[in-house]
């Protein structure tokens, strides 16, 4: 079973040379620490930054340099800082190759719920709705089950939706799954030490298992 760092490390393997990548709040921000050396990747943050580096070492933080989740970050040489209007112009113009988001629920049709739990106060929807409406490739980084042990991979989302039929792939502490065009979660990989039966028990939506499922290589 993976921890949050393990999920981020596995997702980093999905990034390709030359990509512009948006990292959402939560687990996705950790992906910045695992970009393969020598790979030309530009990380974008919707609060107005192009060229995010790894998280700073303790004692080297700059409180004025933050990502969309208000975490202190580093800026790489050649980076650019701009206003949020230009940032969302990039997103809406489909200049971002890959979006990595957290989620509270994902349906077997690729719907995502990530911004609100009814009855709980939220600061706002943030940029997630623009991201899922504009991105052509969306990977979700999330826990497979909630704190009550209930599956977050469902036949249908029960929480207010962020986007419809948009998620392509999901990486959890248990597995890597692809959302099929016809619906369903295709099991691609299982986390080290995790059995297919454990993944089946934790998945409420339709799970498609076509052959022997390999362990993740992290």
Give a quick precis of the structure.
The protein has helices at residues 4-12, 84-92, 128-134, 196-202; strands at residues 20-23, 42-45, 49-52, 75-81, 98-101, 105-107, 112-113, 138-141, 153-154, 169-171, 175-179, 185-190, 207-208.
Structure characterization notes:
The chain has one domain: Glutaconate Coenzyme A-transferase (3-Layer(aba) Sandwich), CATH 3.40.1080. The chain contains 4 helices and 13 strands. Strand 6 (105-107) and strand 7 form a beta hairpin. Helices cover 15% and strands 23% of the residues. It is an alpha/beta fold and 218 residues long.
**Order of H and E elements:** HEEEEHEEEHEEEEEHE
**Average pLDDT score:** 92
Oligomer: single chain
**How far apart are the termini?**
12 Å
What is the top-level CATH class?
Alpha Beta
Radius of gyration: 17 Å
Number of strands: 13
In the CATH hierarchy, the architecture is 3-Layer(aba) Sandwich
CATH topology: Glutaconate Coenzyme A-transferase
